[in-house]
Structures are given as C-alpha cells and as structure tokens.
Write a structure and sequence with these properties.
Structural class: mainly alpha
Shape: elongated
Number of strands: 0
Order of helices and strands: HHHHHHHHH
Number of domains: 1
Number of helices: 9
Radius of gyration: 23 Å
Length: 274
C-alpha cells in the first residue's frame, strides 16, 4: 500500500461524516452523466454532419427540402440524450455541494453547479434547425428555394456568440469541479489524487483552445476550398477533437474512480476506528 493512499497514516485521518456518502454517490452520478452526455453529443454531431451533407446535395427537380434530410425525430432523440446527460451532471454537481463545511470545498462545488446551469440555459437558446443544416425560412425564402436560389436563414440569436459563451461556462464548470476534487483530496491527505486532478486541470485548460482552433481551421478550409470532399475538409478536425475529448474523458473517469475509492476507504477506516 502506497504512502499516498488514504489508508496510510490512518491515525491522522479526519472523521468521516455521513455527508461524504452523498459526495461519493455524486461521483458515480457524474461518471454516468458524462458518459451519457458525450454519447448524445457524438450522436448529435454525426446526425448534423449527415444532414448537412444531404442538404448540400444537388437539388432534384420536384423534390422538396424536407424529403432530402434526416427525420427530425433522430435529431430530437439525440438532443434529448444530450440534455439527459447534462441534467445528470447537474445533479451530481449539486450533490458535491453537500460536502461537510470543514472541508472548505463547498464554494468550488457551488461555482461548478452554477456555471453548468448557465451552460444549460445558454445551450437551450441555440436553434437546432440551422445548426443541423436546415435554415429557418420564410415564405419568400421557400419560393426562392423552389426556384433554385439560396434561401437565407432567419436567426434570432447569435449562434457563434452563444456557442462560445456556452463553451466557456462548461469549461469553467469543469475547472471548478476539478478544483473541488483537489480540495477533497487534500482534506483526506491523498497527494496522488491531488496531483492527478491538477494535471487534468492543466490538460483541460490547453485542450479547449486546441479544439476551438481545430474548429476554426476546419471552417477556414471549408470556406477556402469549396470543392473539397468532406472526408478531407472535416474528418481530420473531427478526429482530432474526438481524440482530445476521449483522452480527457478517460482521465476524468480515473480521477472520479480514485475519488470514490478514497472516500470508501476513509469510511472503512472511520468505521474500524469507532
């Protein structure tokens, strides 16, 4: 057993209040929520890409736009999975707020929950149809479309601005959550978990700008070379983002699993010493 494990130095281990059991359950819920959220995000991204490709195909005479797109219920189902995972994450962050006050970590949990709630509110303002390649059109735009002209989308929000604001809120929520985990690790004197949490936090700070930059590069390539096939223009960017997100998600799972083991070991030590 390593010196960094929570069982080492059990004589100096802080008491284990029952509130930590809620935090341990919150860690389990956060693991499930992140899995569901990422699954919904990937499904929605794939459907949006397919729908955009169908919409950009040459128009067939007599075929309406709605006949050349994926069924709307597929996008709605993926969006519901995405929001379901987001709500699980929100619930887990609220459970983190139940940590005992002597740990001095409640502030970080509350900040993380508030930032994630702002992310949800901002995300719900984004119109799904234009993002999926189906612009909201007026009757005049429909007439232009039937005549072979390009319909102009009618957007009531700044999609780019709201997207960036949502990403910033989600990133801030994750940073506060990792800071919370580091605080819990320091409270239980688990230096290994604290180091892993700090390194993951540093990775996330670097990974988000990298993903945003990859998106900008993809957009620049798509605007510059219009005739380039999607698997050259979009696939490299998507693969890079998936690799960055997948590595970060696997690391987060390890940190949360270590947090659960630490809390379970601390409860066992407190029970044996009682």
């Amino acid at each position: 057993m390593s010196a960094d494990s929570p069982a080492a130095g059990s004589q100096s281990m802080p008491p284990f209040p029952p509130a930590w059991r809620s935090v341990s359950f919150g860690a389990n819920l956060l693991m499930a929520g992140t899995l569901v959220f990422v699954a919904g995000l990937l499904a929605l991204a794939v459907l949006v890409m397919l729908n955009s490709q169908l919409f950009s195909q040459p128009r067939v005479e007599g075929m309406e736009n709605r006949d050349r797109t994926l069924p709307a219920f597929l996008l709605a189902a993926a969006f519901l999975v995405l929001m379901g995972g987001a709500l699980l994450v929100q619930a887990s962050l609220c459970l983190f707020c139940l940590a005992p006050s002597e740990s001095s970590t409640r502030t970080f949990a509350l900040a993380s929950a508030v930032c994630w709630l702002l992310f949800l509110v901002i995300t719900l303002q984004l119109p799904l149809a234009p993002m999926a390649g189906m612009p909201l059109r007026s009757r005049l735009a429909d007439q232009n479309f039937r005549q072979g002209l390009d319909p102009q989308p009618i957007l009531f929000v700044n999609v780019f601005g709201f997207t960036m604001a949502g990403l910033m809120c989600a990133a801030a929520s994750e940073c506060f959550a990792l800071t919370y985990v580091c605080g819990v690790a320091h409270y239980f004197r688990n230096d290994r978990l604290a180091r892993s949490g700090r390194r993951l936090l540093a990775y996330r700070i670097v990974a988000l700008p990298a993903c945003v930059m990859a998106g900008f590069v993809q957009g620049f390539i798509a605007e510059t070379w219009h005739g380039m096939d999607w698997y050259w223009a979009e696939a490299p960017c998507v693969i890079l983002i998936l690799v960055i997100m997948g590595f970060g998600l696997a690391w987060l799972w390890r940190v949360l699993a270590e947090t659960r083991r630490m809390l379970r070991a601390a409860e066992e030590i407190a029970t044996e010493g009682a």
